[in-house]
Amino acid sequence: MCNAAHLPSKGQGSDSKGSGAPKWQRNASLRQLYRFASKTDRWQMVAGVSAVVVSGANQPLQLVVFGQLLDSFNLTDKSEVQRRIFFLAGMYAALGVQQLITISIQTACFTTVAARQSLRMRAAYFAALARRPLSFFDGADAGGLASSVLEKTTAVQAGLGDDLAQLLQRLVAFVTGLACALYFSWQLALVSTAAVPLLALCV
User: Fold this and answer.
1) 134-157: buried (b, 16+ CB within 10 Å) or exposed (e) per residue?
2) What is the pLDDT of residues 170-194, one digit of tens each?
3) Regions in the chain scoring below 50 on pLDDT
4) Cβ distance 128 to 85 under 8 Å?
5) Going by C-beta distance under 8 Å and a sequence separation of 6 or more, which residues neighbour residue 186?
6) 3-state helix, strand, coil in the chain (%, to 5)
7) Which of 1, 8, 95, 136 would give a disulfide with 132, using CB separation of 3.0 to 4.6 Å?
8) Residue 51 and residue 57: Cα distance in Å, rounded?
9) Overall domain count for the chain
10) Structural domain of residue 53, as residue ranges?
11) Closest by CA position to 72, among listed 93, 89, 58
């Protein structure tokens, strides 16, 4: 189901170029962190990413609907004002329900897949430890090895779970919000976008 974790063998503690960090201690890419993913995990990630895209686009759309709701009060026809307010209020409520559903789906998918990856990493690491000769444990703290793999896989699980989902959701919200701003008032959007780096420096 999964490949054994790679532990350093004799003579493999560092790379031949002497760059400093051993090969087996270098940071893994996001693709490598999902190397133990099964077909079910991949389908769950597809569902989770789809939910993230919808959730990220939700907040800018809520602002658009709320702006249209405020503009409705500028109409002179009382019946038309009432009709638009009821319609837009219903849309606003529907967006809230949709956000609740999609956030639940994305959180469930990302955290479940992350927990499975963490479990398989621990199993592969301990399987690799079991194949080591007894002399390897003479100079190593067995309790330290166990606590180290537990700590690292827990950090991986947290990073691949809801934290990753929230990061992707905020990126989608930024892109969608910028697209909406350019659509409704591209002049103001360009001015605001140019001021964002200055605001970031001030904050």
Assistant:
1) eeeeeeeeeeebeeebeeebeebb
2) 999 999 998 988 888 888 888 888 8
3) 1-19
4) no
5) none
6) 80, 0, 20
7) 136
8) 10
9) 1
10) 37-116+161-202
11) 89
Q: Report the distance separating Cα 27 and Cα 154, nearest Å.
A: 15
CA dist 177 → 7, 64, 87 (Å): 46, 9, 22
For position 67, what pLDDT does the model report?
A: 87
Provide the CATH number for the domain around residue 95. 1.20.1560.10
Long-range contacts of 171-179 (CB under 8 A, 24+ apart): 171/56, 172/52, 172/53, 172/55, 172/56, 172/57, 173/56, 173/57, 173/58, 173/59, 173/60, 175/56, 176/56, 176/57, 176/60, 176/61, 177/59, 177/60, 177/63, 179/60
Query: pTM of the prediction?
Result: 0.73
The tokens for 135 are 């002399």
Angle at alpha carbon of residue 45, lines to 57 and 120, rounded to 5°: 145
Residue 185 domain flag: yes
